[in-house]
Amino acid sequence: MPELPEVETVRRGLAPSMEGAVLRELELRRNDLRFPFPTDFARHVSGRGITSLSRRAKYLLIDLENGKTIISHLGMSGSFRVEAGAAADTPGAFHHPRSKDEKHDHVVFHLTRSGSDARVIYNDPRRFGFMDIVGRADMAIHPFFRDLGPEPTGNELSADYLAKRFAGKAQPLKSALLDQKNIAGLGNIYVCEALWRSHLSPLRAAGTLVTDGGKPGEGLRTLVDAIREVIADAIAAGGSSLRDHIQTDGSLGYFQHSFSVYDREAQPCGTPGCGGTVSRIVQAGRSSFYCADCQS
Which of 181, 185, 186 is nearest to 202 (CA)? Predict the structure, then answer.
């Protein structure tokens, strides 16, 4: 599933085409994706100006001039494709390639700006993505967002904050980090990478990173820094590839090819002087990749 850096890269890739444009028509080629589209979805948004694109956790947010916001989640296989004339671009930095098969084009945003037309096409072979619409003023109480924790890129995420969330918990650290109520937008890939950078085992109890007095231990402070760094590096990789126009087939960005532990089972650990080997285990149905020699 696309994670926060991929969704942020998609946002940055779509913004030049969508921000400031008029959504002349929203074309729905089926009645649903993972969920049915909202009642009169196309009527509510067609003809409206797009003021901005933003992101919350793994959700892409398209703000309209009438105070409404289109919420889009890419699910397992969703992607957007921009078409202007003969040119086509699929912004994103995905570990697995995105589909370009037109039979999976389910939603088309017909855009107009300064006399020029463009189309932004949502393609989703597995249809695990979804779209909704909400008043921007009601975003904080929407079921998708009301229980989300702070962004891993914002100032709200701190070692002191996580110490309060983790204190006394026997829950495995990997599971605690994937809990969206603790941190919004962290996914399996970048949790594995952050744990490797901070030399912490995914099996370790989350509460062991908190002192008896409820303060963050040194390992928790290191972990927060690692989370920030791994997300920033991934976003930067996607952004640089978009600026350089290296690929237009959905495989933009290089960070997915430089993982230190994710999807590297049985390969040597990259920690200098470690000499260990990357292992794969399954936690709550998800693969965890880590080095048992240097992550404890």
Answer: 186
